[in-house]
């Protein structure tokens, strides 16, 4: 595993620290030697195929299942030590599939979880309002939609004002407006210094929102870094999309003939091409020399999905 992210600027140890973590179920190595360093106040993504080991890592970091080998420390405390009980009070968790009691209403559900966590219920109405469920506080959970259940699960994860949040596929079932509201809350929490780890199958949703991420495959971390750093490491081609003046296609194509570009194709009154990152400025200079023959230009970076498949395949 290679970490290509910048060195931490803050002093001290990472809030979440994992070294050589293994979890074996007989011959199955669900997690196979994972290292992680997650900094205070960071929104960190953990992505991978189903079965890559993400949820297993979450459960070990929460102390819910034992490690086969290795070490995990959360806020300085080992997850297998006696000090971890106090740390857990500062941790919130939203599992991928949260189980709720259908006979309780929204407010009663938060009161139930608050008692389990040993925290005050005074903030419960405010939490329901924060996640957009104030109008359904007295409605039975059996009447909640999947998205409402997910928002209620998020509210329970925020009980006790945790300093560390683990969010496993947290936007499942949410509509676009609710997803936007969810990430607005995460931005507020990050501004407050809360450290968050999030998994998601919807890579386009998180690529501009996480500070750094790790890509997992077959129980291992394949790479860690910012999205841009991972793009540069993979050296995936950039995509240029051009709108051309009528009749300009052949001239533009001839201008690009001696440049390291590939996959030139005509499309919708223009053309599309790919080039390596190192050739970007040469291609832009050549296109700029064509003046009004090029009416518009868009340069597209590789998506997080492109990067993900590059590392995980």
UniProtKB/TrEMBL annotation:
PROSITE patterns named among the record's database cross-references: ABC_TRANSPORTER_1, ABC_TRANSPORTER_2
CDD domains, per database record: ABC_DR_subfamily_A (cd03230)
Keyword check for ATP-binding: yes
GO MF annotation terms: ATP binding; ATP hydrolysis activity
Family (UniProt): Belongs to the ABC transporter superfamily.
Entries under Gene3D superfamilies matching the protein: P-loop containing nucleotide triphosphate hydrolases
Domain of life the protein comes from: Bacteria
Domain ABC transporter: 16-243
Matches recorded under PANTHER family: ABC TRANSPORTER, ATP-BINDING PROTEIN
Name this protein carries in UniProt: ABC transporter ATP-binding protein
InterPro entries to which the protein is assigned, alphabetical: AAA+_ATPase, ABC_transporter-like_ATP-bd, ABC_transporter-like_CS, P-loop_NTPase
Alphabetized UniProt keyword annotations: ATP-binding, Cell membrane, Membrane, Nucleotide-binding, Transport
Source organism of this protein record: Thauera phenolivorans
């Amino acid at each position: 595993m290679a970490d290509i992210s910048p060195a931490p600027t803050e002093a001290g140890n990472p809030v979440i620290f994992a070294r050589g973590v293994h979890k074996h179920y007989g011959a199955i190595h669900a997690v196979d030697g994972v290292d992680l360093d997650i900094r205070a106040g960071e929104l960190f993504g953990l992505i991978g195929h189903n079965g890559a080991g993400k949820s297993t890592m979450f459960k070990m970091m929460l102390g819910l299942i034992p490690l086969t080998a290795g070490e995990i420390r959360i806020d300085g405390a080992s997850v297998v030590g006696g000090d971890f009980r106090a740390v857990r009070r500062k941790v919130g968790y939203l599992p991928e599939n949260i189980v709720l009691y259908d006979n309780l209403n929204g407010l009663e559900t938060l009161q139930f979880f608050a008692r389990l966590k040993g925290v005050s219920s005074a903030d419960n109405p405010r939490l329901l309002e924060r996640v957009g469920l104030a109008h359904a506080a007295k409605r039975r959970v059996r009447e909640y939609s999947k998205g409402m259940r997910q928002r209620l699960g998020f509210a329970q994860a925020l009980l006790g004002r945790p300093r560390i949040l683990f969010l496993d596929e947290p936007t499942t079932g949410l509509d676009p407006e609710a997803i936007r509201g969810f990430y607005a809350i995460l931005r507020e929490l990050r501004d407050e210094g809360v450290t968050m780890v999030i998994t998601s199958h919807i890579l386009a949703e998180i690529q501009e929102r996480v500070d750094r991420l790790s890509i997992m495959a077959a129980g291992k971390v394949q790479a860690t870094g910012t999205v841009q750093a991972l793009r540069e490491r993979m050296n995936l081609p950039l995509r240029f999309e051009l709108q051309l003046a009528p009749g300009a296609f052949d001239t533009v194509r001839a201008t690009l003939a001696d440049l390291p570009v590939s996959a030139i194709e005509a499309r919708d009154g223009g053309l599309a091409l790919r080039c390596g990152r190192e050739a970007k400025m040469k291609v832009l200079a050549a296109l700029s020399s064509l003046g009004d023959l090029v009416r518009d230009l868009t340069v597209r970076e590789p998506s997080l999905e492109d990067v993900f498949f590059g590392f995980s395949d």
